[in-house]
Specification:
The protein is mostly helical. The protein has 2 domains: about 240 residues, no CATH class; about 100 residues, Flavocytochrome B2, Chain A, domain 1. Helix content is about 50%, strand content about 5%. It contains 18 helices and 6 strands. Strands 3-6-5-4 form a 4-stranded mixed sheet. Strand 4 and strand 5 form a beta hairpin. Helix 2 crosses helix 3, helix 3 crosses helix 8 and helix 8 crosses helix 9. The longest helix has 24 residues. The chain is rod-shaped. The protein starts with a helix and ends in a 21-residue tail after the last helix. About 30% of the residues are buried. Bound molecules: protoporphyrin IX containing FE. Protoporphyrin IX containing FE binds next to helix 15, helix 16 and helix 17. Protoporphyrin IX containing FE (HEM) binds next to helix 15, helix 16 and helix 17.
Length: about 375
């Protein structure tokens, strides 16, 4: 809660670092004073560092490079001396922004006033607890707010899923979102940083987004930017297809037709005397491993050895299931020379009519 009251995520992060909406002067002043009370550096410094983090994520030019470990990203990058320097970031807009420059110039005084003096004075005057104001509303609130912000750099790069892109470390997780007042849908945020939302699905926890939406209703915030939902859907689909492709790659598939030998009718007849070969849809199958297990009986298979069993398999005797068709394709050992008339849907097993293919440079793709 202290994080939201500080207005740090609303102002420092989504307004000034990412320009994801515009705010009236009154809201800007409220947010810059609230942001000062968080004692996390001037907004100019913070936004510059944050832009550098986005531009150089997971590299040594990223001030909180997740590859350097959880402790480093959480707090180490500020505590320990290091020769690392933040990479370049465009700050032209921040240099021209009068509110940002004003806060940067008077930052120390603003910290003392809003970070310590105000909490102490309010508690002292209102209910006589000066020490409680300083310790609890001042120091304790700051500790909580600091660690809440630190969690964005640490656990939001370690915990959770990557629903939009898995090239870098940012991740989405409800726990990170709860700890950071909604900044925990970090995979989404790194993919679509110009979006004023960190979480765009209605059930995802993002109080910062709700606050900005409320300000928009009140006329205090304008031009709320959202990334085109069609493009967000593409990112989500890409990751789902990737997962499906991994699953697809873990499954065994029939031999690629181009890899099968072309067998003459005479050769088929000769070989069928040695082993139980059955012709279905132009493909020659070796049914040896299935003869005993065939639910339709051993004899129905043996009767068709060396023959064309296409019509029997596809309804002449029994209309086999997709599962039977898929299993049959695994038994392919050759293609009959000259072929036979085969209905195209009989040619491709049901399990291969829809599949995930990787586009190659020439735009072609092949069956799994
Ligand atoms: C190698 C080729 C074949 C394979 C892999 C195969 C596979 C199967 C499988 C998995 C079933 C269980 C039901 C289903 O999934 O549809 C089945 C049932 C059956 N098959 Fe085949 N089959 C083959 C060839 C044949 C042939 C050539 C005939 C007929 C001449 C035939 C006749 C039947 C019958 C009648 C049943 C139904 C059994 C029942 O439930 O009463 N099958 N087959």
């Amino acid at each position: 809660m202290s994080q939201l009251l500080n207005g740090h995520a609303i102002g420092y992060h989504r307004l000034w670092s990412h320009r994801s909406y515009t705010a009236t002067m009154s809201l800007q002043l409220f947010l810059i004073c609230g942001g000062s009370s968080a004692v996390q550096g001037s907004c100019f410094w913070w936004a510059r560092t944050h832009r550098s983090h986005h531009r150089h994520t997971d590299t040594d030019q990223d001030p909180y490079n997740a590859k350097r470990g959880l402790l480093w990203t959480h707090i180490g990058w500020m505590l320990f001396k290091s020769d690392l320097r933040s990479g370049t970031a465009d700050t032209a807009d921040l240099r021209k922004d009068p509110v940002i420059q004003w806060q940067h110039r008077w930052y120390l005084y603003l910290v003392l006033i809003f970070g310590y003096a105000l909490p102490t004075v309010i508690s002292g005057w209102c209910w006589g607890d000066w020490v409680g104001g300083l310790c609890f509303v001042g120091a304790f609130r700051l500790t909580v707010a600091h660690h809440s912000t630190f969690c964005i750099n640490s656990i939001a790069h370690y915990l959770g899923s990557t629903p939009y892109d898995d090239a870098l470390t940012p991740r989405d997780h409800l726990l990170s979102a709860i700890l950071t007042m909604g900044e925990g849908y970090h995979n989404f945020h790194h993919q679509f940083p110009m979006d004023y939302r960190n979480a765009f699905l209605w059930y995802q926890y993002d109080p910062t987004k709700w606050f900005i939406t409320l300000c928009s209703f009140l006329g205090l915030a304008h031009n709320l930017r959202i990334f085109p939902s069609n493009e967000i859907a593409k990112g989500a689909l890409t990751m789902k297809l990737k997962e499906l492709k991994d699953f697809q790659d873990s499954i065994q598939w029939p031999s690629f037709p181009g890899d099968l030998p072309i067998v003459s009718w005479q050769s088929y007849q000769d070989q069928a005397k040695e082993r139980p070969l059955i012709l279905v849809s132009g493909f020659i199958h070796d049914a040896a491993s299935f003869i005993e297990a065939h639910p339709g009986g051993k004899q129905s298979l043996l009767r068709n050895v060396g023959k064309d069993a296409t019509s029997a398999f596809f309804g002449g005797v029994y209309s086999h299931s997709n599962a039977a068709h898929n299993l049959l394709a695994m038994m392919r050992v050759g293609i009959l020379a000259g072929g036979v008339e085969a209905i195209s849907e009989h040619h491709v097993p049901p399990s291969q009519r829809l599949y995930v293919a990787e586009a190659t440079r020439d735009g072609s793709s092949s069956l799994p």
